[in-house]
Amino acid sequence: xxxxxxxxxxxxxPSSSTSSSTPHRLKSAGTPTATAAAVSGIxxxxxxxxxxWESVSKQRSRILSLSxxxxxxxxxxxxEGSPISSLADSDRPALSLLSSRAAYSLISSSLRNPASGSGxxxxxxxxxETYLSSDPPLRLVVxxxxxxxxxxxxxRIHSSDSSSLPSLSGFEAVLLAIYAAEVKARAGKPILVxxxxxxxxxxxxxxxxxxDKSRDSNPTASVxxxxxxxxxxxxxxxxxxxxxxxxxxxxYFKEISQMPAWSKLEFCKLSASWAGxxxxxxxxxxxxxxxxxALTNGFADSPSFNGNSEIEDDFDRLAIRENExxxxxxxxxxxxxVRIPLPWELFQPTLRILGHxxxxxxxxxxxxxxxxxxxxxxxxxxxxxxxxxxxLATRSLVNLDTSAxxxxxxxxxxxxxxxxxxxxxxxxxxxEILLSSK
Length: 438
What we know:
The chain is an all-alpha fold and 438 residues long. The chain contains 18 helices and two strands. InterPro entries: Hyccin.
């Protein structure tokens, strides 16, 4: 399969070609028919209904093509009865596909196929062409599968038997399409963040030691680089792999509020597996109390729960078994996760996504729990690697998670204790007297 470079806007629409030739036709055409056609071409460009219908038609075409290529899979149904093809009849086909759990299961099972990711993979070709269509809802669909695609790609490229695996040029083509679109969107500029400078006065405070005039003359003193300037890439080289994947995760983070819960859940599970072989040190971050609480909740009905040292062995065996089941369910393999190299270009966007999954009030409990497990696993990985920057970032997220859970627990306990018993008679309140002047 040839993943040729295409323009981001796709093929020009008839309305755009008509409008581009409109000035010439208005000057040269002398018949009323030609003039009316030119005027109708201008009005179609400015008509929002026309652009909406063009977007819907494009989305329906892409969904039907996806349904047809998945119909050859043994796990898929025929095209007419496919849950994907029925989504094309919606008023918002791409968003219906984005929120369809059945469609996500079909596509994710195809991505987990051991033969997926090659240059001849039709699903990778579909993802590549769909992202190049530059339709925002269709791009959201592609980005929702980015965690699974990145997880499969990194686990295979860094596995011990990577030489025997098929080519992963299909996965790389999708990553390069997302990277190229971001390079074009940034226009050669880095992403900067303005750091508050406490040495300078603000609306809310005055520095105790006076104003630092030396910093006032240097406007870049409080500006940090969140993401450096991007360079165009035509291939995924080993030295640029982390940067390309990291840019893709940054694009995912920008649209994370519109991502479905199962996509976030997939990312949290894969992030935990990137830390490598699971260890019990992540359970000792907050001291022994959390571990005892976990033992009490998980082994209350266990015959070995007798208060002796056998609990420690049961806990370790359970942690290893759960990690193996998690990795095998993600298609990565059992017996421990593949230890993925995590330079800061890849670590930073990963933590930003996990921070949203951990602290956003709109996320489900499952997403928050998986994010908490992933952050603790990455903290253990950073501690083993003696990476101070990663330790500081992951430990901060662990502290925020602990604080949020403690606050929620105290709030629920206060609600239960503050509620009065329905059988206890309450003293009737006196009616309020409202005074009004005549």
